[in-house]
């Protein structure tokens, strides 16, 4: 039995074109870890969409809506107004892409201005994160630890808030692995009283998560240029574009988490992603695929499956 058939034994896994995926996977496995990089979204991708009770979890931005209601009610109210105003445009297929991008830029920029105006301290945010229902997916820690062990770059493209991502990773892993690089919206804090005074530029929203937003001379740039194979993880249709600008890309397996509105979104997601994980709160499948690269000395998946 091929690895694809083995994966499809999980009821939550859907693959529209198994032969294509198996060919891609064979190439990635044969080339090994030294030719591989991981591109991943964070909110509802590395993090859970639902907790063990079936309740919807938070994302990095919504922490500032939900966790500030008592201590910063004016901030919470302003952010909720912005969500109601701009949220419907994010998945609206009736408007042009340029119009959608304009709405997303406004949403993110106005939200960040509200957060800065509220004068939150780093300690405030750490407390919000500690108390918030925002959790890594099951097996996410093992996934990241294997990436670290095999020296595979993990680029996290997130339209969320990078400081919150760092806090979540630090809490779960005890550190930020050197192979893990976060491209996101970061809050800068002043030295006097550790108050948030601005956000980094450019603003990274849901429609611009790819290498075009990597600014400056990053230490890992040369490393990823030499790695032609990609495993991409996302929960939004926009996430399939995270590999834009990866100049030496050869083979990419794109894994999508379809977290909600399953019936109405299934066909679109099935076309966009190679592997679709339906209502799944685990990184079990990406971890399983990543482990296969340990067998890069083998030339075909049948040999791997017969181990």
Structural notes for this entry:
It is a single chain. Helix 4 runs antiparallel to helix 5 (97-117) and helix 7 runs parallel beside helix 11 (284-292). This protein has two domains: 3-49 and 136-305, Rossmann fold (3-Layer(aba) Sandwich), CATH 3.40.50.1000; 63-131, Orthogonal Bundle (DNA polymerase, domain 1), CATH 1.10.150. Helices cover 41% and strands 15% of the residues. Strand 8 (251-258), helix 10 and strand 9 form a beta-alpha-beta unit. The longest helix is centred in the middle third of the chain and has 21 residues, at 97-117. The protein is an alpha/beta fold and 307 residues long. It has helices at 3-8, 18-31, 63-66, 73-90, 97-117, 122-131, 140-149, 162-173, 221-225, 262-272, 284-292, 301-305; strands at residues 13-14, 36-40, 154-161, 180-185, 187-189, 196-199, 229-234, 251-258, 275-278. The protein is globular and about 55 Å long. Mean pLDDT is 90; it is low at 297-301 and 303-307.
Number of helical runs? Answer: 12
- Low-confidence runs (pLDDT<50, min 5 residues)? 297-301, 303-307
Quote the distance from N terminus to C terminus: 12 Å
Shape: globular
Q: Got a strand count?
A: 9
Radius of gyration: 20 Å
Largest sheet, described in full?
7 strands, mixed
């Amino acid at each position: 039995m091929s690895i694809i058939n083995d994966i499809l034994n999980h009821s939550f896994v859907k693959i529209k074109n198994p032969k294509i995926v198996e060919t891609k996977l064979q190439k990635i496995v044969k080339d090994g870890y030294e030719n591989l990089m991981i591109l991943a979204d964070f909110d509802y991708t590395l993090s859970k969409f639902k907790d063990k009770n079936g309740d919807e979890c938070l994302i990095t931005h919504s922490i500032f809506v939900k966790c500030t209601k008592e201590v910063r009610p004016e901030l919470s109210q302003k952010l909720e107004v912005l969500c109601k105003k701009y949220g419907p445009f994010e998945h609206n297929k009736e408007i042009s892409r340029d119009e959608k991008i304009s709405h997303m830029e406004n949403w993110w920029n106005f939200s960040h201005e509200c957060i800065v105006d509220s004068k939150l301290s780093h300690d405030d945010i750490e407390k919000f994160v500690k108390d918030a229902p925002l959790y890594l997916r099951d097996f996410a820690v093992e996934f990241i630890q294997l990436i670290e062990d095999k020296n595979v770059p993990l680029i996290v493209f997130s339209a969320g808030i990078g400081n919150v991502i760092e806090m979540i990773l630090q809490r779960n892993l005890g550190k930020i692995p050197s192979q893990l690089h976060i491209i996101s919206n970061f809050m800068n804090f002043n030295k006097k009283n550790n108050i948030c005074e601005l956000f980094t530029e450019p603003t990274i929203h849901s429609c611009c998560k790819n290498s075009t937003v990597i600014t400056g001379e990053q230490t890992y740039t040369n490393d990823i240029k030499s790695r032609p194979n990609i495993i991409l993880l996302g929960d939004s249709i926009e996430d399939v574009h995270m590999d834009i600008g990866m100049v030496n890309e050869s083979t990419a397996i794109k894994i999508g988490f379809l977290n909600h509105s399953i019936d109405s979104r299934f066909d679109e997601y099935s076309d966009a992603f190679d592997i679709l994980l339906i209502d799944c709160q685990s990184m079990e499948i990406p971890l399983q695929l990543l482990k296969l690269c340990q067998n890069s000395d083998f030339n075909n998946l049948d040999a791997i499956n017969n181990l």
